[in-house]
Specification:
The protein is an alpha+beta fold. It has one domain (32-496): Orthogonal Bundle (Cytochrome p450), CATH 1.10.630. Helices cover 52% and strands 10% of the residues. The protein contains 18 helices and 13 strands. The protein has helices at 2-29, 51-66, 86-93, 109-112, 121-131, 137-159, 170-185, 199-216, 223-226, 230-259, 278-287, 294-325, 327-341, 350-355, 357-369, 401-404, 424-428, 448-465, and strands at residues 70-75, 78-83, 167-168, 267-268, 271-272, 376-379, 384-386, 389-391, 396-399, 466-469, 479-481, 483-485, 491-496. The chain has a four-stranded mixed beta sheet. The chain has a three-stranded antiparallel beta sheet with strand order 3-13-10. It is globular and about 75 Å long. It binds protoporphyrin IX containing FE. Residues 101, 116-117, 128, 185, 303-304, 307-308, 311-312, 315, 367, 371-373, 376, 437-439, 443, 445-447, 450-451 line the site of protoporphyrin IX containing FE.
Length: 498
Amino acid sequence: MLLSLAWFALGTLLVLPFYLLLWSRRARLTRKLPGPTPLPFLGSALELGRGPVEMMTNTVRLWRQYGSNIYKMWLGPELFVFVSNPNHLEAFMGCHINLKKSVLYKFLFPWLGEGLLTSSGKKWKRHRKIITPAFHFKILEQFVETFCHNSEILLRKLEAHGNGPAFNIYDYITLYALDVICETTFGVSVHAQENHQSQYVAAVKGMARVIMERTQYPWLFFDVTFRWSELRRKQEQYLKILHSTTNEVIQARKHYRLLNPDSSFSVDDTGVKHKVAFLDALLTAQNDGEKLTDEEIREEVDTFMFEGHDTISSAITFCLRLLGLHPNVQDRVYNELVGVFGNSKRKSTYRDLQDMKYLECVIKESLRLFPSVPFYGRRLEQDMKIDELVIPSGTNVGFMAYCMHRNPDIYPHPEKFDPDRFLPEKVQGRHPYAFLAFSAGPRNCIGQKFAMLQMKATISDILRRFKVITPSNVVIELSWEVVIRAPKGVFVKIEERS
Ligand code: HEM
């Protein structure tokens, strides 16, 4: 430990003058921006409070306090500028420079390495190019069967609660989403729903909390100090579970490909001949000499396993809660489903999901109020001019999707759940960057079409079978744990439809 500290002290002494220059430039150029007054060393970290619930509440409080457009905040040595004006967001997100993620994403590195979410530069570009065809709509079409097969299992599990008291639906949806992402994108069944104490899901929650706690304590920004903390010990435990799960998935798929060499997984010029799992695209690229290492493949599997289930479970659960609070909206969705299926109990097809137009408005309105990734950001590699202001390179820019979605100038009566806001004629007059649940620009969510299809498939299957009732309309407590969560669960009742 002493040796590490000595290196840290020496390194600090050498780079300090250089950093002081950069800090003073950042401070000078952004001095006109409003924001809390920083304390020495800590910056304004204390403003965020303790734990993920306070982090969520205080982030929103600061936005209300310092303006709905742009404000600044120092967290330890790092400068953050938070933006929530659609014009500013478009300037940052829409351009092809400054694609690097903010400094806080480095806390994800031990888990996700440099997967698509966290990487930048040439590596990100190359991987995005390899992975994009695996999310072509022709491929997504084939996933509908997997959504349906897994939602049948989900409905069987939910049956036990039919006409009973309120229960926490969050865990059921999470396990269902985990089964779906593993079967569709990795071609491997993990049967999470059948074995409902998933160590993996618990480790994802634990790891997300470690990451957010690091954000709140600037002295843990540095690896050298983090290494000796209690949080690091917890992190190691979670990583063991997370990485062993993804390694098992990769090995299972490799084994399957070895036994089934005929199940070739290629996309031809006219579309798709065979079912292509995302993992196959990576393994094929590796075999074709694209120089994807085993480590890089694991990083992507970790990234997709996390992004592909945690975001969707949060989105479906919040949407069900809102439908349970608004029976008139739920009836309208149900009538749409009767229009699509009549009295038939048949499974959904891709075409059916396309026809669920009102349900799509409902899901978007729910994501407006509860975007699965409420805040995300970049670190500028080049200065950016916003209106008359220069935001200097080295600044972390926070994109405040959750807050912008609650700006009354964009969405009148923003707390009101009103899916009609997303009818085509209403969207037309709105700024293209006024809805950012899936981000936008070159680093937008690669899984957004997949997500929308899966959410429609799941919610429609649940509503065709059950009426959802949310017994309590007290404001729900939210936490920011990379994704947005309801830490006390989401309780609903379900009644069998006659
Ligand atoms: C309701 C569901 C979802 C929501 C709300 C959502 C939202 C987002 C957002 C806001 C980002 C940008 C994050 C950032 O800039 O740091 C993002 C990126 C990403 N999402 Fe999603 N996501 C969802 C589902 C999915 C699914 C199902 C997958 C995979 C199958 C996925 C994979 C990714 C990946 C890999 C990125 C990084 C893309 C890049 O930087 O090139 N997401 N998502």
